[in-house]
Design a protein that fits this description.
single chain; flat; mainly alpha; about 45% helix; about 55 residues
Length: about 55
């Protein structure tokens, strides 16, 4: 799923996971090409006429 740049941050609130709990269970995992899905999203969004914010 990460390959396509899905953002699961909204699910934390739905599952009752607040910032303090998230800090306990989630850690960054730097990987080669980690920004590629987000760059792809920007390209797709821009080509569809959307303005990236």
């Amino acid at each position: 799923m990460a390959e396509w740049g899905f953002d699961y941050r909204r699910s934390y609130e739905a599952l009752g996971v607040d910032g303090a709990r998230r800090a306990e269970i989630v850690a960054p995992l730097p990987v080669n090409g980690g920004l590629k899905p987000f760059e792809r999203y920007l390209v797709i969004s821009n080509s569809a006429g959307h303005v990236a914010s």
